[in-house]
Amino acid sequence: MKKQLLLTVACVFAFTSGVKAADNEVWQLVTDTQERVVMSNVDYLLASDEAEVFSVVLKEGEMINNVTRVTFVKEPFSTVSELTKSSVSVFPTVVESTLTLSGCEEGEAVRIVSMQGMEVKQVRTSAGETVVEVGDLPSGYYLLSVGETGTTVKFIKK
Asked: Which of 26, 55, 82, 142 has its CA 20 to 30 A from that of 37?
């Protein structure tokens, strides 16, 4: 029930956050580690049952992982910092058997998580391009996360 309430509150803020007040303030989501994101950049929150942590999934596909608590504040738009873009790329995003990653550092952890929040696969990157076999996964939507704080990309397994 607590997770449903949190997701509902986040959705309400997301739908209303695109409107700036006359004083140029916007709603922001603030994590327990003080990372701030304008609510219009939040796609959804991802948590599995019984988990003590969850992830904030951003519209660009990036994730803020291992979050235990969020708060919402309304602050001037100019105080919001932009997230840096990653040089990691994943292709294709609609896949039958293999994904190719480039721009990763050697040895980084790659996690694939189902939309139910279950980790279904983990591999380590190699130098240059890394090929990840996903042919054994059931059809559906997945999140691929690279590194500890890394880039997260949504993909579809046919």
From this structure: 142
53: left (phi over 0), alpha (psi -120 to 50) or beta: beta
Write the pLDDT tens digit of every residue in 5-63.
445 444 444 444 444 444 567 788 888 877 878 888 888 888 888 888 998 988 877 88
Write down the CATH superfamily of domain 89-157: Immunoglobulins (2.60.40.10)
Q: Which of 127, 135, 125, 132 is nearest to 157 (CA)?
A: 135
How far is 84 from 38, CA to CA, in rounded Å? 14
Q: How far is Cα 130 from Cα 40, in angstroms, rounded to an integer? A: 33
Parts of the chain belonging to CATH 2.60.40.10: 89-157
